[in-house]
Amino acid sequence: MAKKLLSGIQPSGTIHIGNYFGAMKQFVDLQDSYDSYVFIADLHAITTIQNREELSNNILNVALDYLGCGLDPKKVCLFKQSDLMEVTELAWYFNCITTMPYLERATAYKDAYQKAKEVNVGLFDYPILMAADILIQDADVVPVGADQKQHVEYARDTAQKFNNIYGETFKLPEPLILKNMAIIPGVDGRKMSKSYKNTIPLFGTDEEIKKAVMKIVTDSKTPEESKDPDTCNIFALHKLFLDVEELKYLRERYVKGGLSYKESKEMLLDEILKLIKPMRERREMYAKDIDSVKEILANGAKKAKIIVAEKMNIIRDRVGVKI
Ligand code: AQP
């Protein structure tokens, strides 16, 4: 039997090429070899988006993004997290066996705290809700970007903790992280992230993508000067699109001098637009029939619900609330 894959993306803003290369591309590449469950993490997004219209638009947009990228609803169970409320019930059981200091060690929480944001309880509890998403489905693998590795480790720890207290109930999931694409840098060289506003939108218009690419931060070397590809933010993004030979050639041009950053950015823009052209067309096709997209999500939820309800029965019994 094929192994089970589960992962999700928050509808917390516009999907960017970091999300695509870190996570979504893997979902698409692996859909033929895994029993795949891919969801829209709308409950997670409420930790940052508390606006009805924005959230529901974002949910539909992520559904379109998934389909546009090439996820085939005949192969992949696509659903939205909030359609499986069992997940929040399980998160509660997990909360009751999790300590505050343990969650305080989560890097995502520490980052949010350091930015001196008022951290809400939902954000603090994010790793536990994510553990519930993964464990309730008995997932074998969770494809994620490297920034989420710790959260999958939290899921493993939580499974072990629960199994120790209540008896063997959960599988220990493995993260799937692509080695050369672990963290995709944004236009300022930091991790590409919606909250840093340094993203290149995956499904932006040509103009939006161009604007983002032209903003990539470089040093001030003239076109004639030799440049260091290994410290160049543009070169780091070329690595996502070019094969070994093409990269070797570009590296030589960097070192030799004569290649301006502007030209390198224009080349990158072409690479991005070439990649997204067919994805964009597919996305537009689905966007013409939003009702069918909603139906895909409803059917996915129905399928996932059967598995989750069965698992929940066992969990309630283990915990002792089923009498
Ligand atoms: N820069 C990145 N490089 C590699 N992978 C990335 N991912 C995100 N950014 C990068 C991966 O995309 C998946 C979905 O991410 P998410 O939307 O659930 O949340 P995120 O990781 O929090 O994405 P952002 O843009 O960084 O959002 P904010 O700013 O809200 O924190 C995950 O698998 C993630 O690893």
Secondary structure blueprint with pairings:
Layout: E1 4-9, H1 17-30, E2 35-40, H2 42-45, H3 52-69, E3 76-80, H4 86-95, H5 100-104, H6 107-114, H7 121-124, H8 126-135, E4 141-143, H9 149-166, E5 174-176, H10 206-214, H11 233-241, H12 244-256, H13 261-287, H14 290-319
Parallel strand pairs: 1-2, 2-3, 4-5
End-to-end distance: 34 Å
**Bound ligands, named by name, code or SMILES:** adenosine-5'-tetraphosphate
What count of helical segments does DSSP give?
Answer: 14
CATH superfamily of the largest domain: HUPs
Q: Strand-and-helix sequence, N→C?
A: EHEHHEHHHHHEHEHHHHH
Domain unit count: 2
**Shape call:** globular
Q: Which CATH C-level class of the largest domain is it?
A: Alpha Beta
Helix percent band: 55-70%
Structural class: mainly alpha
Structure in a nutshell:
The chain has about 325 residues and is mainly alpha-helical. Helices cover about 55% and strands about 5% of the residues. It is built from 14 helices and five strands.
Descriptive report:
- The chain is mainly α.
- It has two domains: 211 residues, HUPs (Rossmann fold, 3-Layer(aba) Sandwich), CATH 3.40.50.620; 80 residues, Tyrosyl-Transfer RNA Synthetase.
- Helix content is 55%, strand content 7%.
- The chain has 14 helices and five strands.
- The strands form two sheets. It has a three-stranded parallel sheet with strand order 1-2-3. Strands 4-5 form a two-stranded parallel sheet.
- Strand 4, helix 9 and strand 5 form a beta-alpha-beta unit.
- Helix 3 crosses helix 13 and helix 4 crosses helix 8.
- The longest helix has 30 residues.
- The radius of gyration is 21 Å and the shape is globular.
- It starts with a strand and ends with a helix.
